[in-house]
Amino acid sequence: MVNNKAVSGGLEWRVRVADGSSSAVLVPESGIFQRIWQGIVGLVLGIIRKVRNFFVKAWDVGVDDPRKVMHCLKVGVALTVVSLFYYMRPLYEGVGGTAMWAVLTVVVIFEYTVGATLCKSLNRATGTFLAGALAVGVHWVASQSGERFEPIIIRSSVFILATSATFSRFIPVVKARFDYGAMIFILTFSLVAISGYRVDNLFDLAQERLSTIVIGGSMCLLISMLICPIWAGQDLHFLVARNMEKLATSLDGCVGEYFKDSEDALEIDEESRKNFQGYKCVLNSKASEEALANFARWEPGHGRFSFRHPWKQYLKIGASLRSCAYCIEALNGCINSEILAPEFIKEHLSGVSMQLTSHSSTVLKELAHITKTMRRTSTLDFAIEDMKNAVQDLHDALKSIPSQLITSQLQVDEEALLQEKKTTDPITQPTSIPLIEVLPTYYCSFING
């Protein structure tokens, strides 16, 4: 009591209930300065916590893929080298004072993979060269037409070429490979053509701009290909192999989840759910595969990947893997469905379904291993043969489902009659279970087959 009074300045407020059985002490609120100080301290601590979490996540990203750290270092080296053209006077005068375009070129075209960098470099150089040549030609024609028609010709050429180049970006083939080049063409032609109306020596302006882009693009390509190169084709190769492994693991986990016993539900629930979530990564990998395949076509031969490496086949393999992933997703819907198949039907198909799943996942894992090592082994042939035999066993089991349904229903009727202890023996007619109750198990077996 003494301490509380001392804190509150010797005054204490109490509230008593009407019957006098209990009371509560009212503690005075803290002052406005104390609340402000607590708010400032909380704000500072919150900022420090967010900064710490940011650095922790950044560290995790670098540890997970050190190539990203190396890419950042390569970009820094390229910018440092190209900036010498701006800081050193002999180099600065050699490019005519447009060295800043080389710096901008490095920032824009230096991508994560060699294929992406090469694609942007060639697009930028080609677009700049074509636009500069056309701008110089249009300027010469306009200058020969007199002062009256010169601005009309320049404006008309800008309108026609800019409209045509913009429309070309909607064409699928151009958009996939030359979209960046078309955009650079529009930018360069507009700048050079419009500047030529006020600049006397337009040819030198176009030459200086092209030279700075060649310098920046060459520096990006050299550093990207010589210092720890990151190949888009190699990333695509291993992405397809990883998707095969994820699909095999998902198939094992999903079928095992469907046919598991109710007693083991609590023991393997979390582990099984983690196993069959990998198919979702396969479903979402289409954009990555198409982008990597597009960049891989630009890359030169490297390692065991020759110039004529069948990059288009990887897209077909990815499409087939996604078809399998959609089947697994449908099977996952059967697991969570409210319509459940009878237990004796699941027991009837459990053995052959699990056997087929095991052989199918073995084939997928063997294909993933062959894709990674690029070496075919005889193990795959035996695995495929075992999978074919398992498919035939499953088909035989599916054909015997109608007789199993009738037999099981007769057993259920006999047990019900014995429990009721009826004196008469009614004639039991064979009945069948509604088809909708059998569909989930049948669909699960159909997916495996």
TrEMBL record:
Keywords: Ion channel, Ion transport, Membrane, Transmembrane, Transmembrane helix, Transport. One of its GO terms (biological process) is monoatomic ion transmembrane transport. It is found in: Membrane. GO terms for cellular component: membrane. This is Aluminum-activated malate transporter. It is a multi-pass membrane protein. InterPro entries: ALMT. It comes from the Eukaryota. Pfam families: ALMT (PF11744). Belongs to the aromatic acid exporter (TC 2.A.85) family. Its main location: membrane. The lineage of its organism: Eukaryota, Viridiplantae, Streptophyta, Embryophyta, Tracheophyta. The chain crosses the membrane at residues 32-48, 69-88, 94-114, 121-140, 152-171, 178-198, 210-232.
